[in-house]
Amino acid sequence: MTASHDRTTSLDAPGEPVTVHTPAGTVVGRGTGRTRRFLGIPYAEPPTGPRRFAAPVRRGRFEEPYDASRHGPTAQQVPLFPTTTVPEPSIPGEDVLNLSVVAPAAPDDRAPFPVMVWIHGGAFLAGSPASPWYDGRAFARDGVVCVAVGYRLGVEGFAPLAGVPTNLGLRDLLLALDWVRENIAAFGGDPDRVTVAGQSAGGAAVLALLSSPLADGRFQRAVSVSGGLFDVGEEVARDVLERLASSLGVPSTRTGFGSRTVGRIQQAVGDLRTESGDGALVLGPLVGDDVLPRAVTDGLARHGHRVPVLLGATGDEFDGGATPESPHPSHVAPAERAAARAVGTRVSDTLFRAACPRVAAARRTAAAGSWLYSFEWPSPVLGGATHCVDIPYFFDVLDAPGVAEALGPDPSAELATLMHSDLVGFVVGREPAWARATGRPGDPAREYGRPGAALAADTTGVFDPVVRAVYERAEVRR
C-alpha cells in the first residue's frame, strides 16, 4: 500500500557521460535517448561547521570536472515516517545544498528551453529532491529543463535562533534560483523563462517566494500544488524550539542545537510529533524579516504582480482514507466527507483548499493572472483524491517506483497526459484554456478526474464552500 523510504531505486543516472561547461565549472552527467541528467550539483558550500546556521554561501567554481552521475546528499537525514506516499530517499552526506538538472538531449527549434525549478514537499521538516516521482524526464521529452532543488529543513532551515539569520531554507532557494539564472543556459535552458513550482511545503515555499521582495525578478511564472499558506509566527516557532531543546537536553540556542547532529535533531522532531498525537509541530517560513516582512497573503498583494500563477489542491488532501503518513484516520464514509466538504470545514478545506481563493483574492489587482485547478481523481488504494497522488500525473511518471502502491495498478495514462500537458503549456508560457480566478465565489477552475465526468472539465464553484468560510471569518475581504 505504501512507498517505503528504503525502496530500491537507482540513485545513479543511466547512460553515457555527457559534459557541459558552465560558469560554475565543468559538469559531467549522463545521457540516454532524448534526456540528459546532471544530478547532485552543489550550488552552495556545505552548511557545516561555521556555515551551519548561517546564510548560504555561493559554491566556488569547480576546479575539476564535477561528477553529476548520482543524486547528492539530502537535507533529510531521518524521515518523519517509516513510509510515505512519495518515495523520499535519505542520502547521507554534508553537501545537502545541491540541485539536479534533467534536460532535453540536444537543442532543437524550441531551444533555449523554458525551465521549471521544482521544490519538494515534506512539511518543511522532511522530504527529498531525489524522489523518483520528481524525475523530469517527461518534461525534458516535451522541451522543458527540470531542476529539482534541495534546501535546509526543520531547525536547520527555519529556526528563529538568536544570532542566526531567519528563513535559511528560503535563502537557500533564493541562492539556488541565482545559480539557475547564471548557469542554466549551459544545459539548454532559458534563464529568462523560469517557473518556480512545488508541492505541499514546496508549494507553500513558492507562495512565500512570490510574496517576498527579495525574490522579485528571479522567476517569471509560479505553480503551487497543494501549497497552502503555512507562514509561521515567531511565538509559535519559539515554542516548538523550546520543546525540541528540552527533549534533546540542550538550551534553545544556536550553541545548544549546534551540539547535536542534524540526524539527532530530526529524530527528536519525529519523536515529538508522534508523542503529540496530532503531529502538531510546526516550523516553516517565518514572518517579520527581510525575506518575509509581511504575512504571505499581504505580501502577495504587493509583490509578484507580473508573475502568472497556477495553483490548486486535491479534493480530499488529508480527508480521504488511510495514508502512509496517517495510517489510522477515523473512517468517514464518502457521503459524510462530501457533506463536510459542502460547508468547507474539513482539514483539507481549511489548510489547503482555502489557500486557493485567498491567493486569488490577494492577487486580484495583479496584471498577471491566477488560475485554479482541483484534482478530484480518487485513488482506489487511499480512498480519495488525497495529498500527493496528483504528483505522478503532473510529472507523467506513472511507471515510477511507489506509484502502483499509492494509485493502484491502473492509473489513467490519459489523465496523466492531459495534466502534464497543461502544466507544460503553462511553463512554456501559454495562458491556460480556462478563465482566470477572481477570488470571489463562483470562481472558475479546471477540474481533473472527477468520477463520471470528463477527465478535465472547466467548471465553477469548486472552491465556493471554502470561499464562503474564508469570507465569513473575515480572513479575506471582498
From TrEMBL:
Gene3D superfamilies registered for this protein in UniProt: alpha/beta hydrolase (3.40.50.1820)
Pfam families: COesterase
Highest rank taxon of the organism: Bacteria
Similarity section: Belongs to the type-B carboxylesterase/lipase family.
Entry EC number(s): 3.1.1.-
Protein keywords: Hydrolase
Gene Ontology molecular function, alphabetical: hydrolase activity
Protein name, UniProt field: Carboxylic ester hydrolase
Domain Carboxylesterase type B: 19-320
PANTHER family membership: CARBOXYLESTERASE (PTHR11559)
Region of interest called Disordered, as start-end residue ranges on this chain: 1-32, 314-339
Native organism: Streptomyces aquilus
